[in-house]
Design brief:
Layout lengths: L1 H22 L46 H5 L3 E9 L2 E2 L7 E5 L4 E6 L2 E11 L2 E2 L2 E2 L6 E6 L12 E7 L3 E6 L6 E9 L1
Keywords: Signal
Organism: Mucilaginibacter psychrotolerans
Protein name: Lipocalin-like domain-containing protein
Length: about 190
């Protein structure tokens, strides 16, 4: 019984060694380990894909709608404008370098590389008129007042929160003619 097992193992070993003998491999050539449908001669160098330069991205954020009150979300950490669009015009880059801190008292401090601007923010619970919020399509009104100096004046509108997570606020203009859509993202605690 031992001899029956030994014979097939011996035969497999002989076949493997005899195949290696016939292959004629250049031992100093680089070896390709990549599988391919094409037959590539042994020793063909493998090309390594060139990495694509990284593009600055917005931090990974929460996508689940939060049941927390708006004040409990927005008053934690620093925020920035991740997206600003009016109609077909995208003006996100105007807010580069701006950070927003919302205080529980309703004050907002905006910092732009050491230059601060003070303003106010207000979260409103909707007043309904025949089942429709009186200021827009959502029961989450969000008003920001930051003066008349651009770009911050672009945020000084009657807005409503269309979605809120623990790290994102999606706000839109109440007036459909303005067609303004802003995404605020929390980037630090």
């Amino acid at each position: 019984m031992k001899n029956l097992f030994f014979i097939p193992v011996f035969m497999i070993a002989c076949v493997l060694f005899s195949c290696q003998k016939e292959a004629k491999v250049n031992p100093s050539a680089p070896v390709s380990f990549m599988a391919s449908n094409k037959k590539t001669p042994v020793g063909t160098p493998v090309t390594t894909p060139v990495p694509v330069p990284s593009v600055p991205t917005i931090p990974v954020t929460d996508t689940v709608t939060s049941s927390l009150p708006v004040a409990s979300i927005v008053t934690l950490g620093k925020w920035k404008v991740a997206s600003y669009r009016e109609g077909t015009s995208v003006s996100t880059s105007k807010f580069n370098g701006y950070t927003f801190v919302f205080d529980k008292s309703g004050a907002i401090v905006v910092d732009n590389n050491g230059q601060t601007t003070n303003g106010t923010w207000l979260y409103l619970t909707a007043s309904f008129y025949y089942g429709i919020p009186t200021y827009g399509y959502s029961p989450y009104g969000f008003n920001i007042l930051l003066g008349t100096k651009k770009p911050l004046s672009l945020l000084s509108k009657n807005l409503f929160i269309s979605k809120k997570t623990t790290t994102n606020l999606y706000v839109d203009s109440v007036n459909p003619a303005e067609d303004t859509h802003v995404t605020l993202v929390k980037f630090s605690n």
